[in-house]
Amino acid sequence: MVERETWATRVGFLVAAIGSAVGLGNLWQFPFKTAANGGAAFVAFYLIAVVLIGFPAMLAEFVVGRRTNVNAVDAFAELGHRRWRVVGGLAVATGFWILSYYNVVGGWVLRYILGSATGAYFDAPGEYFGAVSAGPEAVLAQALFLGIVVAIVALGIENGIEKATKVMVPSIVVIMVVLAGWAATLGGAGEGYAYFLSPSLDAMIDNARTAIPFAVGQAFFTLSLGMAIMITYSSYVGEDDSLPFDGGVIVVTNTLVGILAGLVVFPILFANDIDLALTGGGGASALFVAVAAGFAELPLGRWLGAVFFAVVLIAALSSAISLMEVTVSWAVDNFDVSRPMLAVTVGLGLFVLGLPSAWDTAWLTWFDNLAYSLFLPVSVLAVVIFVGWVIGRDAVDELRRGTGGLGSLGPLWLWTLRLVVVVGVVATLYFGITELFFQNDPTGVPPLIAGALSP
To answer: According to the model, what pLDDT value does residue 148 have?
Structure first.
């Protein structure tokens, strides 16, 4: 077995974990999920989900990882519950599933950096997206993006992931702050802010059924929960670190970047009268078509677009690195094979699984729907039940290490897991399964079958 690595510094862990959370979930998913689910009403549901469900669930994953110091699959056996290894396996498989189509979107971002600099999409943003998002060109772009991710993961924890994310994460935050400041000067900024940040009770009630599952799923996605990432990253953490403090830093930073993304995107859309139906209903294409159309109408749009999509690329890479590390970490712990070889092998598997999504965006949407509405909630629910009801007090003891004692906050966290988080995730899973399989136009039906059933 290859000797296991660790983070060189605590800051390295924090930055890597933040980099995992701050990805396409913030800059790609968040704006179009917001537009599709009631604007500020969705943002309100999302923030509630982050505080009441996301943060406690993140601490649960931290506890499992640090207490065992092994990969996400073997961690459950290390805790004396071998049968629960299936939970770790589900989380690893979920991360692998998500990364397969995540790489495809990363390839789109590469194309849009070039398209911004040359102005290739300015005359017809929709047609440009159709040309680069599917087919042979998308397959090649997917392979290029995946190759970058494999190269970084192959270098290891300290020399690859930690060094890369220490550059990436500050860059994302700084550039997004600058872009948000610039977006505030646009003519439609006020309308954009109102749509994004001023929820009404009526809108929340009207959009609750569809917005809540997507808001909770968005919290899981953006906080990297249910994919074994936080179990894996915390397995490299020292026992003297405060898990609640580290988790709080990650949650706050991630949420701020998501809000920054909205403060950039929505002023652009409103300033240029971009139809929000395009953003919300466009699914996977939303960020690329709607925002690209906005840049096409602005002075210096080429360079502003190139900078924006460069930030999206950095965010995409930081998250893709963490998703790949989950599977590579398991392989490193279980096979006497070098990390570079394992990274290449995992990369090849991801490339093959991602081919349907690269060839046809309908498949990418199907992969994404299953991840959001089924795989992530089931994975998070299983971990939360294990931590809350199976290891219970041991989990509280682990959480207290490095904090100087939590007092009554430890049991409060435990009962939040057992009741609030479990009920919230079960409700989300119910709504998600209903949308996937029991609607007139179910989103969980694979494209081939859906095409055969359509009149």
So the answer is: 92
